[in-house]
Amino acid sequence: MTDPWVALEADGDAGRRAGALRRAYEQFTAAGLVEPGVRSVVAESWRRSARARVAPEGRARVELDADELAVYRDGHALSRVMPLIRELTGAYAVDGEHLVAVCDAQARLLWVEGHPTARRRAGRMNFVEGARWAEAAAGTNAPGTALTVDRPVQVFAAEHFQRPVQDWTCAAAPVHDPHSGRLLGAVDITGGSGLAHPHSLAFVGAVARAAESQLALLAPRPGGGAAQLAALGRDEALLVLEGRRVRLSRRHSEIAVVLAHRPEGLSGDELLLELYEDEHVTPVTLRAELSRLRALLGPRVLRSRPYRLGVAVDADFVTVGRRLASGGLAAALGEYTGPLLPASRAPGVVRLRERLRDQLRTAVIARGDPGLLADWAYSRWGEDDLAVWRALAAALPEHRRPAAQARARALDREFAEGASSPGRD
């Protein structure tokens, strides 16, 4: 297959491909083995789904009731572009008996619209407004997997991890804040095997780009020379400054994060301690990095004596901390797209990352709200968090506890086996 993100080539035999996928899926669920014909994006998603203990016979859970959904989506950034999305997709969905769905960054479906017959059928697998279709909760599916890998994805037939979804084909593309790069959600088209065509993936990708363009028009960049720094959930931060989008290197990302946290500035010695584990790294090395960063950003942005950022910076990790401090736990979780520069080992970044993570998870556990606990437990950073899984199992109604209890027991065993392995301190 020439494009690994497309489920079926334009001249492909849908019936034959569906049969091959069915056999490969049964092989995987029975023995954990992936046959060569399965696309890598699907194989990796199946493995993540299995690790998350997604039940093959299960269905997505509805997490937002009608009242919660109405309030939440009215305030969501994507509500502003729903008229455009409807205009672009409405005829396509109705004429083709498809559905158009828009979800948030946690893969909760906020809008599901389209052909009435398709909506009734989809309702039987809980593809409805308010349901969570995150990959870790509902297995391989287009909106959930598109959000996980952060790019447009098409999923066909038995590529879906849950069997009730395997009669469907879907294509989804993520939508980002055009200024900060923050992931806002995804646009999805769901229907029959006729959607298993490269055109449907290209179409949904074009709709997502149009939505981002519309958001840029509706929400102009902040004025006054302010910059936006996105560093959560990514190893290379994105800095948006006066219309420029600058992807920083890993070391420059660390510098930007430390300076955004300390707007008053730091001396060279202080910055050296914040950035380098190795105490033998010399100030010359740091000055060389700062010189390269100043050449990239300009002397007005990166100042010295002390080292500081010369413009106001709206950093995503600062926003999360501010919302959490004001009591807005749900809003803070909505903004938290992952650990701060997760691959960084810079001491100053590690402290910030661990502090923010610990503050959030402590607040989530203390609140005891099943929806917030599920948001954390089914995230990439929470899938192995034993304390949260235990809290989720305790908070859920009795009939919904078994899956969370099973995950908590499995983690407990893994940690016990790891602690008793030879060679561990």
From TrEMBL:
Q: Does the keyword DNA-binding apply?
A: yes
Keyword DNA-binding attributed? yes
- Any one GO molecular-function label of the UniProt entry: DNA binding
> What name is this protein filed under?
GAF domain-containing protein
Q: Which Pfam families match?
A: GAF (PF01590)
Q: Where is the OmpR/PhoB-type domain?
A: 243-309
Q: Which domain of life is it from?
A: Bacteria
Q: Which UniProt keywords apply?
A: DNA-binding
What biological processes does GO assign it? phosphorelay signal transduction system; regulation of DNA-templated transcription
